[in-house]
Design brief:
The chain is of the alpha/beta class. It is built from 10 helices and 8 strands. Strands 1, 2, 3, 4, 5, 6, 7 and 8 form an 8-stranded mixed sheet that branches. It is globular and about 50 Å long.
């Protein structure tokens, strides 16, 4: 049974049609603000948002350019599998409350070309990335590297035993990695009490930055369960993608390069403040000192 959520997939596709090639090129040019290809070449990662394209498109474009400029022949793109059905939501809640993740039917990694569950077909988290990817490869006149798309679900503090993780480990041996995440949702529409709900420009984005940095530190030290529970509290949809990234790539130093807010009052039909933070994050391998 589907949950009563905004139809973000339809909204996203409509936004693409409205922007067209001209709008996409404008965003792609804005994405040149950052050169993130070296991060991928160094074995790091770029995390980009999947909130509204007109608000976050420049951040997503930066990730597209990084993939195309780094010289890789293959790119692993880790998407967010949202709990779009009641079954998925119930499983997510049970795992956060400490149940045995191995007993959940939705436990594992999904994606194109894989057998098993196909919840990912209703997912929207990579549509903006793929839209800009198509526009930029067309503009450059190149096919671009191979994209391998995977959607982990219910890492549950144990990404090492997540079904399908061995296949992804094999992919990473000859691929660079990018991932999407909206790591902070806030306000009345997301269940925060009105007296604790901050507008972005009135301390909300400061809070978002602090909470996101807390999550990045938990990943750096490899506290998978602590990170899982942080995502519950911070209303981050990166709980699975983040844990899988850390397991695949090892300790990473995360840096927020850009952060914006996307108003969600209309999709949720809730009063302000109701918004999501879109952040562009560079993840570089931790330098281990010999001293």
């Amino acid at each position: 049974m589907k949950r009563d959520l905004p139809d973000f997939k339809t909204q996203t596709i409509s936004e693409h049609a409205r922007l067209g090639t001209e709008g996409a090129v404008h965003l792609l040019d804005a994405g040149r603000t950052w050169n993130l290809a070296p991060a991928l070449q160094a074995g790091g990662c770029v995390i980009f948002p999947h909130a509204g394209l007109e608000v976050c498109g420049h951040q997503i474009a930066a990730a597209v350019h990084a993939c195309l400029d780094c010289g890789a022949e293959r790119v692993l793109v880790i998407g967010v599998l949202h709990a779009l059905t009641q079954e998925l939501e119930d499983a997510r809640v049970r795992v956060a409350q400490g149940s045995d993740v191995t007993q959940e039917p939705s436990w594992g990694i999904q994606g194109p070309g894989l057998d098993g569950r196909e919840d990912w077909r209703d997912e929207f988290s990579l549509l903006n990335f793929l839209f800009l990817w198509e526009e930029e490869t067309k503009r450059r006149g190149i096919p671009g590297p191979e994209l391998v798309i995977r959607y982990p679900y219910l890492a549950g503090g144990r990404p090492d035993i997540l079904p399908g993780i061995e296949e992804v480990q094999d992919i990473v041996r000859n691929a660079v990695v990018v991932a999407t995440a909206d790591p902070f949702h806030h306000g009345i529409g997301y269940g925060d009490p009105p007296e604790e709900s901050l507008a972005p420009e009135e301390g909300g984005l400061v809070l978002a930055r602090r909470r996101i940095e807390e999550g990045l530190e938990l990943l750096r030290v490899g506290d998978y369960w602590g990170y899982n529970q942080h995502c519950v509290d911070a209303k981050s949809d990166a709980r699975d993608a983040g844990q899988v990234l850390r397991f695949l790539l090892g300790p990473l130093e995360g840096k927020i390069l850009d952060i914006v807010s996307d108003d969600m009052t209309e999709p949720y039909n809730k009063p302000a403040p109701t918004w999501v933070a879109g952040a562009l994050i560079e993840m570089l391998p931790t330098v281990v000192s010999n001293q």
